[in-house]
Amino acid sequence: DTGVSxxxxxxxxxxxxxxxxxxxxxSEHNRLYWYRQTxxxxxxxxxxxxxxxxxxxxxxxxxxxxxxxxxxxFSTLEIQRTEQGDSAMYLCALSFPSSTNEKLFFGSxxxxxxx
Amino acid sequence: xxxxTQAQTEISVxxxxxxxxxCVYETRDTTYYLFWYKQPPSGELxxxxxxxxxxxxxxxxxxxxxxxxKSTSSxxxxxxxxxxxxxxxxxxxxxxxxxxxxxxxxxxxTLSVSS
Lengths: 115, 115
Prior knowledge:
The complex is a heterodimer.
Chain A: E1 4-7, E2 10-13, E3 19-25, E4 31-37, E5 44-50, E6 53-57, E7 65-68, E8 75-79, E9 88-95, E10 104-106, E11 110-114
Parallel strand pairs in A: 2-11
Antiparallel strand pairs in A: 1-3, 3-8, 4-5, 4-9, 5-6, 7-8, 9-10, 9-11
Chain B: E1 3-5, E2 10-14, E3 19-21, E4 24-26, E5 33-39, E6 46-52, E7 59-61, E8 64-69, E9 74-79, E10 88-95, E11 104-105, E12 109-114
Parallel strand pairs in B: 2-12
Antiparallel strand pairs in B: 1-4, 3-9, 5-6, 5-10, 7-8, 8-9, 10-11, 10-12
């Protein structure tokens, strides 16, 4: 158990629709990350929160993407006006605070299919 | 620019064979961190190792060993006496900080171990 719960596991939507994914840390973490993974590729960094502050955003995160972490615990990633190119696995990752051996723990991801 | 290259797309071995997964990286940073992650069929990325750029000591953990050579910008991963449970996609990744925020992943090597 990595302590990262993602919902839903699978999402199928039509092009142009909005979708929202949720990431719930099971225990206390102060850093939360979103990555995207397409078939046959490694994960690509999207954005990162420390508590509720969004500290870093990749240029992959277009204006149609928005991420929030309102209370410094769970996070949501919304994609507006989805495109077929948005089809991918969206991964949430967490790291433990005050760790001298800090590492990322990834969730199982949300698989998005845009038709 | 930072880049990670895993030239081997797929490797197939028979149980008990040793196998080495290659990783070559590019970075202009003098301080950086290298990682290996395993992604089994279940989909969750599992952290295996982190190595910083100032520590070129090779590491062994059970059947796993890692060979870090700055002179060739390589961070290779060897599995000794492979087992069927080792079948997975293995990713090498690079980051400028130890937490692994904004990880740059390679495309991964799919390892298939048959009995």
